[in-house]
Structures are given as structure tokens and as C-alpha cells.
Specification:
Helix content: 25-40%
Radius of gyration: 12 Å
Structural class: alpha+beta
Number of domains: 1
Largest sheet: 2 strands, parallel
Number of helices: 3
Distance between the termini: 20 Å
Order of helices and strands: HEHEHEE
Strand content: 15-25%
Shape: globular
Amino acid sequence: MDISLVAQAFDALRIAPPSRLTLIDASTLASAHVPPFPPDMPALIIGINSKELVSQVKEVLLVAYPNDHFVTEVGEGKRKEERLSELSGIS
């Protein structure tokens, strides 16, 4: 896992990394039945590189989070906040 991606993500979010954080690769999350982290813990999902993977990750997240849960998509130094139900693409 490239730790520089973590630093870049928090730079784009303009926040300090939380004291507790789950780091998970999108392909690992996509192969799970439920998210392997508590729903009240911040998570940084890296490696989302296709719309198919976005769809798979979204499906797993919807097991634990409501449709109107907000997620922040970070890519190329930009950020976009949207509801989980609206998540459809990659940055």
C-alpha cells in the first residue's frame, strides 16, 4: 500500500488524519459481504480505478450505511461529496 496516497487524500480533504482510521484497498472491500470495519470508524478506501469497482464497493457499503450517508470522493487533488446512493463514477 502506497502511504503517499494517504497523505495526498488528507491534503485534498484539507483535514488532519484521524487518530483511528481503516485503510482498505477497494478490491478487498469489493470482495467482502459487509464492510470489515465498524460503521462509526473513518475509512479510506484506495485503489478505486473503474466504474465497475465503484459499483461493487457501493454495494458492500450499502449493507452497513444508509442510502443518504455522505461519502467524499478524492482524486487528482480534488474532492467531491455525495450521497452513497449517488456514487457512480471515479474522479
